[in-house]
Amino acid sequence: MRHPIMIGALFGGLLFAGAASAQNAMSPEMKQVLVQTCRQDIATHCSGVQPGNGAVKGCVRDNFRSFSQPCQSALRQVMAQRNQQ
């Protein structure tokens, strides 16, 4: 099943986007929130995307407005958290 790989690729990209330092890492709690709230959205909108080279992250960006409100909120929270670090 490719969905867990895609979700892992997305969260891996969000964890280490920008600088690769530990202070930019997403908290385990936030990662769990993203997994729970965005799993179905990613499976629905990005199922045909091959992970690698930012493809899943690009798919999420391109389809963001189609994602559920809880997923959009969780992604915004992660980005805000990253921008504060």
TrEMBL record:
**Record keyword Signal present:** yes
Keywords from UniProt, A to Z, are: Signal
Write the protein's name. Answer: Cysteine rich repeat-containing protein
Q: Which Pfam families match?
A: Cys_rich_FGFR (PF00839)
Q: Which organism is it from?
A: Ancylobacter pratisalsi
Gene Ontology CC annotations of this record: membrane
Q: Where is the signal peptide?
A: 1-22
Taxonomically, the superkingdom here is Bacteria
